[in-house]
Amino acid sequence: MDSTYHRADLTIDQQHALLTAARTLSEEFAGAFGVETVERFLHTSYDQFAGGATIANFLPLLAERFARQRLRALARVEGKDSSGVPIVLFLCVHNAGRSQMALGFFAHLAGERALGWSGGAEPGEQVNPGVIEAMREVGIDITGEFPKPWTSEIVQAADVVVTMGCGDACPVHPGKRYLNWDLDDPEGRTAEQIRPIRDEVERRVRALLADLEISTR
After folding, report:
1. Active-site residue among 62, 71, 110, 170?
2. How many domains does the chain have?
């Protein structure tokens, strides 16, 4: 496992962090995927963020979290996930505003009864601070989230794909249930302007959960 991360573009600390992440993920997905698959997903997840992340020390953590999501998606696609919980994927352009609010409400309201993911066609560097503050006003903390792309296994694993303004850039898989939410982009807007968008996102998330017959807390 060690040889995978001995790359010239990685510091010693990053190599160590990725090795630790690989061991953790290998233990989590033991019986479903081998070490080579886990390493490959972790390695490619790291590369997804390496070009745009502003704080290099966070890269291994972002890579581990994204690899975990992708491996869980692959397990669902390959019939190795027996949890049975519905998965909803929220997509927008930068994964920094609308889709993050939707994911925040979805996770808060559904709890463990459903799984929510999000992604962007052109992921930004950080979640919109105004969006973070707007969500904090209603008691939902999304400071731990980060903009990320989507991958084919993530889209394939989702039961419902909700798109918000990404147009032709959004992935299309035949037979997948798609919903398009026409929502204003909070980018560049004031807190006062973001609040109505936030409230409309909440309304739509609650309606979606009701349609999926998922009870809310």
Report:
1. 170
2. 2
pTM score, whole prediction = 0.91
Query: Domain of 141?
Result: 87-211
Phi, psi of 179 (to 5 degrees): -130, 135
Helix axes 12-28, 59-77, angle to 10 degrees: 30
Are residue 70 and residue 97 in the same domain, yes or no?
A: no
The verdict on 69 and 103 lying in the same domain is no
Tell me the per-residue pLDDT of 92-108, one tens digit each, with 9 for 90 and over.
Answer: 999 999 999 999 999 99
53 in active site:
no
Looking at 89, 91, 92, 183, which residue is catalytic?
Answer: 92
Helix (H, G, I), strand (E, B) or coil at 180: strand
The active-site residue, picked from 22, 142, 166, 209, is 166
Q: Is residue 18 part of a domain?
A: yes
Whether 170 is a known active-site residue: answer: yes
Q: Which of 163, 168, 165 is nearest to 186 (CA)?
A: 165
CATH of the domain at 22: 1.10.8.1060
Tell me the two tokens of residue 217. Answer: 């807390």
Do both 116 and 189 map to the same domain? yes
Q: Give 4-41 pLDDT, tens digit per residue.
A: 555 667 788 888 999 999 999 999 999 999 999 999 99
Among this protein's residues, is 92 annotated catalytic?
A: yes
